[in-house]
Each structure stands twice: as structure tokens, then as C-alpha cells.
Amino acid sequence: NNILGVGVLRALREMGLEVPTDMSVVCFDDVPVASLMYPFLTVVAQSPYTMGKLATQFLLERISGRGPAERQDVVLKPNFIIRESCRPPRNCGKIHILSGMEDK
């Protein structure tokens, strides 16, 4: 998550490494601190609102007897938000991002 990402940025800096020159950092989550750090953290983000809304909907359906008794697996499409903490590796030639996620 972004809190761990902040620690990673600090540890890399203490090791004399520069982000993203020497190493890219990508985190999961998108809390406000991600866009306040330097470099701004690149993230894979999920909507907490959407997750909460679906969880509430499934819970209410289950309580009312309309929902399935078994666990439901739901896959939400994340957003890949490219900021300053990542870039292609040096000397790698041409690369393609094949994640299927949208850049924002």
C-alpha cells in the first residue's frame, strides 16, 4: 500500500538509489499521501466506494434471503495511475505495457 511505499522510497534514498532512475516503485491503493510524496507514487487503485457499495449490497441480499449462501467472488477493474515513481528500465529498448488497465 502507499504507506509501505513511503517507507520503500525512504529506504531506497538511504541506500543511495534514486526513484525512478535506479528503481521504479508501484503501490496498490491511492490514498492522498501518494500524490504528496516526491516522487509522486505510481499506483494501482481500486475504488473504496465501489467495494463498500458491493459489499453492502451482497450483505443485505444475504440477510434478506435473496442472495446466495455461498461466497461470491467479484473482480473489480483497477486503475493504473502512472505518476513520477516509475519509468521503463534503462537500456531496455522498446517495451509494451500489457496490463489491460487504463492509464490515468
Describe the overall structure.
This protein is an alpha+beta fold. It has one domain (2-81). It is built from 2 helices and 3 strands, in the order αββαβ. Strands 1-2-3 form a 3-stranded mixed sheet, with helices on one face. InterPro entries: LacI/GalR-like_sensor, Peripla_BP_I. It comes from marine sediment metagenome.
Give a quick precis of the structure.
Keywords: DNA-binding, Repressor, Transcription, Transcription regulation. This protein has two helices and three strands; from the N terminus they run H-E-E-H-E.
What is the approximate shape? elongated
Q: Beta fraction of the residues?
A: 5-15%
Q: Could you list the spans in which at least 5 consecutive residues all have pLDDT below 50?
A: none
- Tally the structural domains: 1
Helix segment tally: 2
Strand-and-helix sequence, N→C? HEEHE
User: Gyration radius, to the nearest Å?
Assistant: 18 Å
Helix content: 25-40%
- How would you classify the helix and strand content by structural class? alpha+beta
Distance between the termini: 18 Å
The major sheet is characterized as: 3 strands, mixed
Average pLDDT number: 84
Cross-sheet strand order for the largest sheet? 1-2-3
Number of strands: 3
Keywords: DNA-binding, Repressor, Transcription, Transcription regulation
InterPro entries: LacI/GalR-like_sensor (IPR046335), Peripla_BP_I (IPR028082)
Protein name: Transcriptional regulator LacI/GalR-like sensor domain-containing protein
Pfam families: Peripla_BP_3
